[in-house]
């Protein structure tokens, strides 16, 4: 199969989404990909949100509602696992443990009583919100009788077994709108790179991403561009001049939204590190890919309308805008940056010192310029402590949240499939029905 004929499944994660913005995101992807999967991390989703998801299932979108917030990394892994089954592949790798000491050359500590959701614990029925449904009950969801598996068996019988180069995963955020030719531009660059490096279109040597512009800046010439080059002190933004021409550039890392991963690369590198929960997940995965010999390439002709942080501000004497995150995100940014500094990801020593400086500036900004400084101070302190102790998750994030009426979030969520438009749930939700 040629690269530009590859099957592509788009995988997104939603959390209390702005439905109008998410509508634009999904609409921008549907004409470009084989299928779209949305994993909903919203705790105790409302009846209104469930009706919204049902609308998309009627249009062929797969919706996996977890019923609680497992974090972006675990949700991406769940979506990827589902996509692989539909493509006829078996997920070959377990998700890296949430314990940063594992696979990092550090001595393991005694296991905590707390558990961090990962692919092992996110199987159907094991985690509140993931529906336990037999494979035969969901057409296309996987197993020996799923369409993807049947297609794979027929291909093997013909001596033309699918390979990872025949398919790809495309990750997206709920606030990213893709250019109409995004996938075409990525695949064109993919083919050129394969032919240049190996003389044949075989796949499995690179991962790709596009240019993400922050849509909140009205002037297109002043928009913040999330494109990072490699420097001795860590990732730095590419100068605007290098991004104006259509080219393929080496990237220090690729952000998750727009990340295009051939399946054989995903199988070689492994899934996202679920214990990181949200921030720096894409950076850690990119560095693992680079350590495995893959290239992380930026395709400037492929563009995304994106949003980073809750809002942006401009500081005197600084040309680049500063992204303001919620206190919740501040905790994870501080904790996960400490993990990177202490050796979670295979990053150079210069990068670690660069992140020490970045962390100092990040803390200073949040304590001096950002609103809610008292709350931010508490999150920063906790993030530093948990980052140094390699603690995986705040205890309150491990318990099911209670709804406004005092009931716990439903133990089962919804699993919709695009083939029947059906909605599978372990607990019926009717209009006006309480818990």
UniProtKB/TrEMBL annotation:
GO molecular function terms noted in the UniProt entry: glycosyltransferase activity
Transmembrane portions of the chain: 353-372
Family, per entry: Belongs to the glycosyltransferase 2 family.
Region (Disordered): 91-161
Top-level taxon of origin: Bacteria
Protein name (record): Glycosyltransferase
Keyword list, A-Z: Glycosyltransferase, Membrane, Transferase, Transmembrane, Transmembrane helix
Start-end of Basic and acidic residues biased regions: 108-123
InterPro entries membership: Nucleotide-diphossugar_trans
Organism, scientific name: Mobiluncus mulieris
Keyword Cytoplasm: no
Claim: Lipid biosynthesis is one of the keywords in the record: no
């Amino acid at each position: 199969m040629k690269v530009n004929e590859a099957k592509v499944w788009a995988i997104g994660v939603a959390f209390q989404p702005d439905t109008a913005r998410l509508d634009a995101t999904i609409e921008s992807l549907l004409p470009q990909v084989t299928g779209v999967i949305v994993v909903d991390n919203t705790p105790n989703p409302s009846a209104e949100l469930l009706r919204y998801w049902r609308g998309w299932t009627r249009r062929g979108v797969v919706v996996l509602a977890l019923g609680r917030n497992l974090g972006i990394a675990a949700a991406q892994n769940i979506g990827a696992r589902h996509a692989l089954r539909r493509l006829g592949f078996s997920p070959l790798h377990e998700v890296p443990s949430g314990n940063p000491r594992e696979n990092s050359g550090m001595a393991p500590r005694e296991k905590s009583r707390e558990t961090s959701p990962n692919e092992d614990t996110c199987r159907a029925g094991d985690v509140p919100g993931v529906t336990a449904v037999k494979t035969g009950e969901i057409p296309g969801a996987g197993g020996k009788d799923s369409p993807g598996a049947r297609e794979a068996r027929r291909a093997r019988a013909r001596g033309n077994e699918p390979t990872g180069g025949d398919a790809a995963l495309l990750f997206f955020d709920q606030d990213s709108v893709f250019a109409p030719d995004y996938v075409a531009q990525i695949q064109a660059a993919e083919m050129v790179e394969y032919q240049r490096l190996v003389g044949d279109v075989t796949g499995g040597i690179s991962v790709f991403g596009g240019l993400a512009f922050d849509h909140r800046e009205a002037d297109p010439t002043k928009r913040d561009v999330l494109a990072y080059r490699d420097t001795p002190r860590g990732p730095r933004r590419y100068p605007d001049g290098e991004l104006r021409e259509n080219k393929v550039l080496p990237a220090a890392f690729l952000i998750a939204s727009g990340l295009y991963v051939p399946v054989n690369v995903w199988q070689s590198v492994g899934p996202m590190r679920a214990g990181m929960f949200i921030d720096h997940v894409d950076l850690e995965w990119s560095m693992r890919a680079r350590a495995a010999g893959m290239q992380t390439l930026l395709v400037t002709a492929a563009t995304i309308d994106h949003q980073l942080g809750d809002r942006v501000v401009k500081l005197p004497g600084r040309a680049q805008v500063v992204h303001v995150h919620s206190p919740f995100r501040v905790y994870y940014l501080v904790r996960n940056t400490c993990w990177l500094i202490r050796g979670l990801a295979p990053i150079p020593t210069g990068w670690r010192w660069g992140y020490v400086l970045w962390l100092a500036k990040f803390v200073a900004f949040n304590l001096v310029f950002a609103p809610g400084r008292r709350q931010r101070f508490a999150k920063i302190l906790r993030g530093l402590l948990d980052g140094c102790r390699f603690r995986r998750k705040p205890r309150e994030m491990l318990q099911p949240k209670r709804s406004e009426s005092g009931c716990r979030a439903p133990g089962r969520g919804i699993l919709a499939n695009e083939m029947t438009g059906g909605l599978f749930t372990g607990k019926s939700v009717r209009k006006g029905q309480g818990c």
